[in-house]
């Protein structure tokens, strides 16, 4: 019996490969095969990865390939074949499915490529290889047979997804601090020109009975997050509602992440969603653009008016974490048009606003139409665009800088009050102009490509306000102090921020600690009992401007921050 190793290189340690687990589970179903699974990350040194793989001594080595790992995997395959020429190497995944003949021709270390949905093809291939039988009748593969390269007919899609076994073990302790991926459907009903899901418009569903059975197993485990990979989870709203209700009714510590089309959400669904338990569900919503010509060019048919209305409704409930996506570089959308899309999405006040960049993926319609729009893009993965007829490379560089600052100053949530004030009152609600101006400041002061501690980010922002918007300096200083103290148990403010605390501040804190009614009313039960230990988890700060007001007022306030002794985050803010 041949030893088989399924492996991949994940983008991060917290990620897990759902594809490998489906493949292993399906291949072992009713088949006598010896299969092991091993995951690495793209951050590991390739010689270390190769040595680890070699320790398994696989007869058949299989890799799951994506845009983030294909270059490393090809390098591994070239080197591995030199030290183990007898090993059969098989690649699969979206990054090798659309030019498989060319890939085999250019990479002699590769023996087989499994195209598209891989469960059936890989199982048939492994059984044939394990029994030293011909592979002529295996569909969905491209293979090297001597000097010839053969492209076999496609494998039909699996009609009944319930035939695929549950991919995870009953004991998920090893996944406690990782993201567990799960799918309740395959395919997408839409035909977006930049997406590979558009090549398979047929949507197939696991049965609800099967989904609930699977989720019951996951709910009993202390996994960090269950991330559904369904391309449009709510394409069947009744089904989506039943799954969400099932999850909401269970006792669990896990969070659940879905990708939805907000424009499809009905009023009845909105009414249902507003009653979900807080801090349990994350919704990722693809806005991509609000420029009509760009949306039409890529066949995005969602109504911006309905999408924005529904997102506002979701946000008003305050119980669902909202993540909105934008894509820079779509056809017809220039820099100014993208700035408007950015502002439109920002105005919806999402928890996360992701600025992504168009990638011309192999097999996508937009890659075939690249010349029509004048696309210049990376020859190697991830095939990100560099410019087109509507946006220059200079402008794309600026957008990359804005993306970096968006992550640091908005998506982190570390300076929410400060950034909201600056955008609303310094930049007249023009969020893009703020990040553009801040990016100019960073570039001018050579702050990019430098690792900054979080404290330094506060200092940079106050220096930016001091240099360019000094009339707002006092207000922003107080807001930044509040944001910083809310996230950090410390008495030391970042450089550039100043305190208004009087000299007798310690006496005020100890007066509160000695007040039994104050302790009983305000302090959580998990704080240590002694006054000295309590003091470590309290911080009193004076503010000239009330950070809890949307508009600044002149009333001086003092706020006691009460910290969780373990997480060191403020769990209460008490106005004294």
Give an overview in words:
It comes from Syntrophomonas zehnderi OL-4. Pfam families: B12-binding, DUF4080, Radical_SAM. This is Elongator protein 3/MiaB/NifB. This protein folds into four domains: 3-151, Cobalamin-binding domain (Rossmann fold), CATH 3.40.50.280; 168-387, tm_1862 like domain (pyruvate-formate lyase- activating enzyme, Alpha-Beta Horseshoe); 392-492, no CATH class; 499-575, no CATH class. The chain has helices at residues 18-28, 46-56, 70-83, 100-106, 119-130, 208-219, 237-248, 267-273, 292-297, 304-317, 335-346, 365-368, 393-411, 416-426, 431-444, 454-468, 473-487, 505-514, 516-522, 531-536, and strands spanning 3-10, 34-41, 60-64, 88-92, 112-114, 141-145, 148-151, 179-182, 185-186, 204-205, 225-228, 255-260, 281-288, 320-328, 352-357, 376-377, 385-387, 538-543, 557-563, 570-575. Helices cover 38% and strands 18% of the residues. The radius of gyration is 27 Å and the shape is globular. It is of the alpha/beta class. The strands form five sheets. Strands 2-1-3-4-5-6-7 form a seven-stranded mixed beta sheet, with helices on both faces. Strands 8-11-12-13-14-15 form a six-stranded parallel beta sheet.
């Amino acid at each position: 019996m041949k030893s088989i190793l399924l492996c991949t290189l994940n983008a991060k340690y917290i990620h897990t490969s759902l594809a490998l687990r489906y493949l292993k589970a399906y291949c072992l179903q009713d088949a006598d095969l010896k299969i092991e699974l091993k995951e690495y990350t793209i951050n590991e040194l390739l010689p270390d990865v190769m040595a680890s793989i070699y320790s398994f001594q696989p007869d058949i080595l299989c890799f799951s390939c994506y845009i983030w790992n294909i270059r490393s995997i090809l390098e591994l395959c070239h080197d591995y074949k030199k030290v183990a020429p007898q090993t059969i190497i098989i690649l699969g995944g979206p990054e090798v499915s659309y030019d498989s003949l060319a890939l085999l021709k250019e990479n002699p270390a590769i023996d087989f490529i499994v195209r598209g949905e891989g469960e059936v093809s890989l199982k048939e291939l492994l059984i044939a290889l394990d029994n030293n039988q011909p592979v002529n009748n295996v569909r969905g593969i491209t293979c090297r047979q001597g000097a010839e390269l053969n492209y076999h007919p496609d494998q039909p899609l699996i009609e009944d997804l319930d035939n695929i076994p549950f991919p995870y073990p009953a004991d998920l302790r090893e996944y406690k601090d990782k993201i567990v991926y799960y799918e309740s459907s395959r395919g997408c009903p839409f035909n977006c020109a930049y997406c590979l899901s558009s090549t398979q418009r047929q949507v197939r569903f696991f049965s609800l009975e099967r989904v609930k059975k699977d989720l019951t197993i996951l709910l009993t485990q202390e996994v960090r997050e269950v991330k559904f990979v369904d391309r449009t989870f709510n394409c069947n709203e009744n089904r989506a509602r039943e799954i969400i209700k099932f999850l909401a009714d269970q006792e669990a510590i896990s969070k659940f992440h879905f990708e939805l089309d907000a424009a499809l959400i009905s009023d009845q669904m909105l009414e249902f969603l507003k009653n979900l338990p807080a801090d349990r569900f994350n919704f990722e919503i693809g806005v991509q653009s609000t420029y009509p010509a760009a949306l039409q060019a890529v066949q995005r048919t969602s109504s911006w008016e309905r999408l924005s209305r529904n997102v506002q409704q979701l946000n008003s409930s305050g119980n669902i974490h909202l993540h909105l996506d934008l894509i820079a570089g779509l056809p017809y959308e220039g820099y100014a048009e993208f700035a408007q899309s950015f502002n439109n999405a920002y105005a919806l006040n999402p928890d996360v606003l992701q600025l992504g960049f168009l990638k011309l993926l192999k097999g996508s319609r937009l890659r075939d139409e690249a010349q029509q729009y004048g696309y210049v893009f990376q020859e190697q993965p991830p095939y990100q665009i560099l410019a087109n007829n509507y946006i220059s490379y200079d402008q794309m560089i600026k957008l990359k800088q804005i993306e970096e600052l968006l992550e640091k100053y908005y998506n982190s949530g570390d300076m929410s009050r400060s950034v909201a004030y600056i955008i609303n009152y310094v930049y007249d609600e023009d969020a893009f102009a703020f990040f553009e101006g801040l990016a100019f400041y960073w570039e001018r002061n050579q702050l990019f490509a430098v690792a900054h501690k979080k404290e330094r980010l506060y200092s940079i922002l106050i220096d930016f306000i001091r240099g360019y918007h000094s009339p707002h300096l006092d207000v922003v200083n107080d807001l930044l102090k509040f944001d910083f103290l809310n996230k950090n148990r410390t008495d030391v403010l970042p450089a550039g921020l100043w305190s208004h605390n009087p000299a007798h501040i310690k006496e005020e804190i100890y007066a509160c600690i000695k007040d039994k009614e104050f302790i009983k009313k305000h302090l959580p039960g998990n704080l240590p009992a002694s006054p000295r230990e309590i003091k470590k988890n309290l911080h009193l700060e004076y503010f000239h401007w009330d950070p809890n007001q949307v508009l600044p007022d002149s009333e001086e306030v003092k706020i006691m921050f009460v910290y969780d002794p373990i997480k060191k985050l403020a769990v209460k803010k008490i106005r004294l």
